[in-house]
Amino acid sequence: MHSADQNRSVLCPPPSALCPKAAGVLAPSSALFAQKPRLAYILAASHSGSTLLAMLLGSHPEACTAGELKGVRGDSATYRCSCGIHIQDCEFWLQVNASMAARGFQFEITRADTNIQGTDAAYIHRLLQPLHRGPLLELVREIGLAAHPRWHSHLRRIQDRNTALVGSLLGVSGAKVIIDSSKVGLRLKYLLRNRSLDVRVLRLFRDGRGVSLTHTNPAEFADATDPRLRSGGTGIVRPDFRLSMHEAAWLWRRSNEEADRATAALDSSQCMPLRYEDLCLRPSETVGQICHFLGISSQAVEENFRARKHQHVVGNGMRFDTTSELRADERWKNHLSPDDLKTFDRVAGNLNRQYGYI
């Protein structure tokens, strides 16, 4: 077991090692934040700490976290907001729905229709399934999509709905920046093309061994502590969500490869790399750097960051936990067997070491 100081030397390679063009001080130009609605997009593999990061930022008076803006699956009558109330009865989300209606959109976060992959056109849906695969294959994807007569209208509709949602959330919350913890690289690709939004990327990393453990048993390692609040507050656990270690390691690797490709052309004004472990070890320092990057005032992390009244988050079940203690989850060190570790290393060890995890 390493001490915290020893871990810091392992977990803090230069930003250029994480985002190819992100080097030096992350200082955005004020010109970049013109008058467009501001969106901070958390890009990461699932279970990398995105909900924790989003809620920490959501406790800031100038930021609003609503969770995964690509929408969540569930019944609004049973799916619960992080405030504990069913989505259909949550005053915050009712105000968002009303604001969206005023902008000409019928909306509910459990039927958000903001996901670029959400289409009933089988051909478009099939082309949007693969993860971001780099310039050449993305060009092939774009040519294929452009050949379908419904693609451009679908893209325009999704872009318009996302713009309206960010604007509605800003209006209802009174914040200056909206935090989207959707994590998906392909969603980011199209958000970056949305000329109506000012998108900034928070590229979040976590040791792949910890992430892979959560995928082997998400209900135990990546959901609400209280079993009654798991699976969106329903308490119903689906066993088919569990992956083998090989599948989990492959998913972590592919998700990070996608994120690397999606951010390859971004510079330090657009993409800030950060680590889950640093967020837990040095939360005030890390959040302060993020605030500077996002162009909002820097302030200390609230001791009880979960208690902020405007925390109305959808997504990962840890949003229901009540403790605000910040401690890196390193249960993988005790729960992964030697065979598990060998499997992970064979599938994803090289990339994990590339990110500085040894």
Task: Give a brief outline of the structure.
This protein has 358 residues and is of the alpha/beta class. Helices cover 43% and strands 9% of the residues. It has one domain (4-354): P-loop containing nucleotide triphosphate hydrolases (Rossmann fold), CATH 3.40.50.
Question: Which terms summarize this structure?
Answer:
single chain, about 350 residues, alpha/beta, Rossmann fold, 5 strands, globular, disordered N terminus
Overview of this protein structure:
Helix content is 43%, strand content 9%. With 358 residues, the protein is of the alpha/beta class. The protein has a single domain (4-354), classed as P-loop containing nucleotide triphosphate hydrolases (Rossmann fold, 3-Layer(aba) Sandwich), CATH 3.40.50.300. It has a five-stranded parallel β-sheet with strand order 2-3-1-4-5, with helices on both faces. Helix 7 (185-192) runs parallel beside helix 11. It is globular and about 55 Å long. The model is unreliable at 1-16 and 23-33 (pLDDT under 50).
